[in-house]
Amino acid sequence: MAISHVTDQTFTTEIKEGLVLVDFWAPWCGPCKMIAPLLEEIDGEIENVGIIKLNVDENPEITREFGVMSIPTLILFKDGVAVEKVIGLQPKEALTELISKHA
């Protein structure tokens, strides 16, 4: 499953079913650029999770709703409910562990 980009308008639909990891990011953010390839790897390796990206500059409504103050912020949703939140650049192992414990 390819990583897709969502907006304030499409966000709720994208997170409502299953396990979904949301990457709150911005194009100017250095750590966001560093975490992107790790998310691509995880997307190719773990089948039971969807990964989506939300540009915080273009989508302030959802960003504000989930209290995102620093980026990258990753929030894991299970059937539409936020179950875990991590802030900042994370190693791949930490991200796969985060997903595994909620799978």
Automatic annotation (TrEMBL):
One GO molecular-function entry: protein-disulfide reductase activity
PROSITE patterns, per database record: THIOREDOXIN_1, THIOREDOXIN_2
InterPro entries (UniProt xref): Thioredoxin, Thioredoxin-like_sf, Thioredoxin_CS, Thioredoxin_domain
Keywords recorded for this protein, A-Z: Disulfide bond, Electron transport, Redox-active center, Transport
Cystine connections: 29-32
Entry annotation: catalytic residues: 29 (nucleophile), 32 (nucleophile)
Domain of life: Bacteria
GO cellular component: cytosol
Stored SUPFAM superfamilies: Thioredoxin-like
Name of the protein in its database record: Thioredoxin
Annotated site (Contributes to redox potential value): 30-31
GO BP annotation list: cell redox homeostasis
Gene that this sequence comes from: trxA
Site annotation Deprotonates C-terminal active site Cys: residues: 23
Record-stated family: Belongs to the thioredoxin family.
Keyword RNA-binding part of the UniProt annotation: no
Lineage of source species: Bacteria, Bacillati, Bacillota, Bacilli, Bacillales
Domain Thioredoxin as annotated: residue spans: 1-103
